[in-house]
Amino acid sequence: MIVIGAGISGLSAAHAAQEAGADVLVLESDAVVGGKLRSSVIDGYTFDWGANGFLANVPETLALVRTLGLDDALLGAADEARRRYLYWSGGLRPIPDTLGTFLRSELVSAPGKVRALAEFALPLVHRREESVYDFLARHFGFEVARVFAGPLVQGISAGDPRQLSLDAMFPRLRALEASHASLLRGLMAARRAARASGGTQGEPRLTTFRDGGVGRLTDALREALGDRIHLGARVTALRSRGRPGAPAGVEVRTADGRTFDDEHVVIALPAFAAADLLRDEAQSAAAALDAIRYVDVHVIACAYDRIDVPHELDGFGYLVPRGQRVRSLGALWGSVVFPDQAPPGKVLLRVLAGGALDPGFSDLDDDAAVAVARRDLEVTMGITAEPERVHVTRWRRGIPQFALGHGERVQAAREGVAGALPGVRLAGTYLDGVGVNDAVRTAAAAVRSLVRAAG
After folding, report:
1. Is 28 in contact with 225 (CB distance < 8 Å)?
2. pLDDT of residue 245
3. Which among 308, 445, 378, 348 is positioned nearest to 87, based on CA atoms?
């Protein structure tokens, strides 16, 4: 089996194929593996380049961790990380997580709260796809949507809640609506069920790895796959190959003129790169993938001495709804979430900036980007000191956007590939979710499908 791409999707697909007994070859254009799932440890700080962890509730990811021997290195987020904030009207205000805290919250006016509570009684089952913003407005009113819709998607996809599909991004909320009509009633029922089964508030815990961060996962996959990974091997073309009396296969050509043949191929690339490879052999799939837009994002990590940070640091971090005179999307208090990611007495903050509503941020050079991050940390948290260390990660076309119609685009891409190249499957975060778990899950599904097809 040939796997194109050595990010988390490609590496986990290759590992799954290897575990299934297949001969595997991984072709990666970059000089290193890992894609956006990397971590660097510098002077006692752990800088995660992209995602900082995964929710420990997906069997495929947990099985992968166990197979790689990383069980003992798993590190769950600190209890304080359950508390999250919004920067709103000049201050950091807790995001309510129960009905009682919502009623006491400063984020929504009294009339807004009355409208939100009316959701219990309104007939709200909806049969058509809608945006995240429209879904919240329909259920809870425009004030709640104005305050919470942006933050609901900013920390996941850095997207525009008026354009992103609720059905693609949060299918669980649609399912709760379908089963309970009232989303509030559905959420309360889900919480009761979780508590009855021994869960804590029904929320899986964000998890990383000790002594190296989430990048240890891709590091371990690289070690497990060894010389099966070919770096600097940019794939430029796929061709259907048929032989008399044999199953149709695929010819894979690289930029340096090499060709590889196999009956089974997993394309684990971003949608736009996958589209380029499929344009000749699977035009309908390429067209569907071309329609999946990506946004640029910056991750700006700033390290401080604890005495220079006046905030109590008692939570996960904060997000910023648009219109609050703060340019960045928010900040993650990394050394609160995972205390081993900074030396004792130090603080590590990760500022997220750019995204769908601020495309111009990607035009800033690193110095200007850091200046924006520092200004925003001063406004939101009162930090005036110069950071002791800064780590800037710039992701061009970094996060796929699940815009309205995303489900149909993904289905068209999968069907187009299956029709034109039966031995090819897609894997990646543009399909069913943008997180680490989603990448691992799509990779495992792609390999299982090819193994079944092989008989």
Report:
1. no
2. 45
3. 378
- The structure tokens listed for 315 are 């939570």
Adjacent-strand bridge partners of 199: none
Quickly state the pLDDT bin for 196 (edges 50, 70, 90). Answer: confident
In eight-state DSSP terms, residue 275 is H
2-33+213-292+403-454 matches 98-196 in fold: no
Question: Long-range pairs for 140-143 at CB < 8 Å and ≥24 separation?
Answer: 140/115, 140/116, 141/112, 141/115, 141/116, 143/108, 143/109, 143/111, 143/112, 143/115
pLDDT digits 0-9 by tens, 271-299 = 999 999 999 999 999 999 999 999 999 99
At 243-263, the pLDDT tens digits run 544 456 899 999 999 999 999
Give the span between the Cα atoms of 377 and 438, in whole angstroms: 31
* Per-residue confidence (pLDDT) for residue 198, from 0 to 100: 61
Contact status, residue 344 vs residue 406, Cβ threshold 8 Å: no
Query: What is the C-alpha radius of gyration for the chain, rounded to an integer number of angstroms?
Result: 23
- Calpha distance 51→359 (Å, rounded): 20
Helices (H), 41-98: 59-67
Q: Which of 186-190, 229-233, 278-282 has the lowest mean pLDDT?
A: 186-190
Q: What are phi and psi of 88, to 5 degrees?
A: -145, 130
In the chain, domain spans: 2-33+213-292+403-454, 54-95+201-212+295-400, 98-196
Query: What's the rounded Cα separation, in Å, for the pair 328 and 326?
Result: 6
Superfamily of domain 98-196 in the CATH hierarchy: protoporphyrinogen ix oxidase, domain 3 (1.10.3110.10)
Distance set, CA 217 to CA 37, 65, 106, 232 (Å): 8, 7, 40, 21
Mean pLDDT, range 187-205, rounded to an integer: 72
The CATH topology of domain 2-33+213-292+403-454 is: FAD/NAD(P)-binding domain (3.50.50)
54-95+201-212+295-400 classified as CATH 3.90.660.20: yes
Which residue stretches of 291-435 are H helix? Answer: 334-337, 366-381, 406-420
